[in-house]
Amino acid sequence: MKLLSRYQQLPRALRLLVEVALFIGLWFGIQAWQTRTMPRGPLPAVSGVDIRNASHLALPADGDGPYMVHFWASWCPICKLMESSVTDVAADYPVIGIALQSGSDSEVLDFMREHGMDYPMLNDPDGQISRRFGVNGVPSTFIVDKNNTIRFVERGYSSAWGLKARLWYAK
């Protein structure tokens, strides 16, 4: 009780600063806990068929800049909220999507068309790719640099601005 009384006597600006710092610390702690099973360092190797055009798609990807690997599911409400952010990012940076337990290739392709998703896509109907990446929830996003090293791992909603900032920083 004495501590609370002393805290309340602090100037309002200082109390606000303490509360913001606590909130940010809590947010980072939760994010670290949620992504604890996801790999850091070299990107795991996986390959499959891009369901948009039946071409071979392999990770790590070849390229000269950063890219994003995004795990999502058609049944996930947060993923649906994040679709516009991912599509916005895909206009400026390479994005590879991985549909987790979202149905057959044709069902995922129909979902993509209905929602304006036009970037390379692997289907992961049995969760095999997700397990290689340690993904235990969606949406999950990996920001990968030009050396195919994972630079950032996110689980949950991320804004287009936040994703683009991470991709820019990964250069």
The number of helical segments is 6
Major β-sheet profile: 6 strands, mixed
Class per helix and strand makeup:
alpha/beta
The percentage helix is 40-55%
Low-confidence stretches: none
Order of helices and strands: HHEEEEHEHEHEEH
Over all CA atoms, what is the radius of gyration?
19 Å
The order of strands across the largest sheet is: 1-8-7-4-5-6
Assigned CATH superfamily of the largest domain: Glutaredoxin
Mean pLDDT: 89
Tell me the count of domains.
2
The name of the CATH topology of the largest domain is Glutaredoxin
Beta-strand portion reads 15-25%
Termini separation comes to 50 Å
> Count the strands?
8
Backbone shape: elongated
Q: Would you kindly provide a written description of the structure presented here, covering whatever features stand out?
A:
It is a single chain. The chain is α/β, with parallel strands linked by helices and 171 residues long. The chain is built from six helices and eight strands; from the N terminus they run H-H-E-E-E-E-H-E-H-E-H-E-E-H. It has helices at residues 2-8, 12-34, 77-90, 105-114, 128-132, 160-169, and strands at 41-42, 46-50, 55-59, 67-72, 95-100, 121-124, 140-144, 149-155. The protein has a six-stranded mixed β-sheet. The protein is elongated and about 65 Å long. The termini are far apart.
